[in-house]
Amino acid sequence: MAEIKIIEENEHFLKLEISGFPKEIVNALRRTMIAEVPTLAIDEVLFTENTSSLYNEYIAHRLGLLPLKTNPDPEFLANLSIDIQNGLIPEYRSDLQLRAECPPQAGKSLTIYSSDLKSLGAEEIEVVEKNIPLFKLGVGQIVELQAFARYGIGKQHAKFSPVSPVSYSFKPVLIFDKSKEFNCEEHVNVCPKQCLEYKDGVLRFTDAWECILCRACEKDCKTGATKISWDESIVRMTIESTGSLPPKVILKTAALILIRKLEILVSLLEKRRKL
């Protein structure tokens, strides 16, 4: 029976235990979260003035990598992703402005942060982290620019990906053959994570998820009593958001995108059959 259980969750992090799903589906979700869930990112920068020591391209690149808060509607994002992958360019675009100057009376350099970006559109665009340093201005230097943010997906550029790492691992399994038993009490101490115990004549995990599959216990067992494997039907998935979208929204959007693609595939097959 398929089951999903939340192990740990906060604003930018989600750890799930997924049981009963084929590993291919889990991996498809992972890849979709990385490459196909749309977010807002700065894609074009128009410089009015730049007397800093950094080239325009350097500053524009840094602005492009800033995570921006994105509309957290999974239905909207899933449909948008399909449109983008079909070659359609999203009409939505938002403008931001930055004007920074280090006055002569300051006497020292001035650090410009992501919070200095101001939204110009009717719908306010918010930078996820306000304290990201962008560049420094020397005394008397000025930077004035207008930045344009649009929707995109990770397939187009990594700056559009809503996640940093998304990973999953199978549940470790310890297979112990009592007929080949040897000095198991010493064997327990070989584990670098100290997640083994020998009790009632059986070697077992204290916490299977602590096992890192290093096989130190298996290598130390000269009689072959211990074997380390994994159960592919039980998976722990870790999702860490850049802050553009909540992890649950990213997961739901990825699932909807896969469903939309399957619906398109079924539709094409039905049309083909009628020909």
Helix-strand blueprint:
Layout: E1 3-9, E2 13-19, H1 23-35, E3 39-50, H2 56-64, H3 74-85, E4 93-101, E5 110-113, E6 118-119, E7 133-137, E8 142-152, E9 163-176, H4 184-188, E10 196-199, E11 202-205, H5 216-220, E12 226-241, H6 247-274
What does this structure look like?
- Its cofactor is [3Fe-4S] cluster.
- It comes from Candidatus Marsarchaeota G1 archaeon OSP_B.
- With 275 residues, this protein is α+β, with helices and mostly antiparallel strands.
- It has two domains: 105 residues, 2-Layer Sandwich (Alpha-Beta Plaits), CATH 3.30.70; 110 residues, DNA-directed RNA polymerase, insert domain (RNA Polymerase Alpha Subunit, Chain A, domain 2), CATH 2.170.120.
- The protein is built from six helices and twelve strands.
- A four-stranded antiparallel beta sheet has the order 1-2-12-9. Strands 3-8-4-6 form a four-stranded antiparallel beta sheet. A two-stranded antiparallel ribbon has the order 5-7.
- Strand 1 and strand 2 form a beta hairpin.
- The radius of gyration is 26 Å and the shape is flat.
- The model has no long low-confidence stretch (mean pLDDT 92).
Number of alpha- plus pi-helical segments: 6
Low-pLDDT regions: none
The end-to-end distance, rounded to whole angstroms, is 39 Å
- Average per-residue pLDDT, rounded, comes to 92
Succession of helices and strands? EEHEHHEEEEEEHEEHEH
Please indicate the percent range of residues in DSSP E strands (runs of 2 or more): 25-35%
Helix content: 25-40%
CATH architectural name of the largest domain: Beta Complex
CATH superfamily of the largest domain: DNA-directed RNA polymerase, insert domain
Outline type = flat
CA gyration radius, whole angstroms = 26 Å
Reported for the largest beta sheet, the result is:
4 strands, antiparallel
Structural class: alpha+beta
Q: Give the total of domains.
A: 2
CATH class of the largest domain: Mainly Beta
Strand order of the largest sheet: 1-2-12-9
Stated plainly, the CATH topology of the largest domain is called: RNA Polymerase Alpha Subunit, Chain A, domain 2
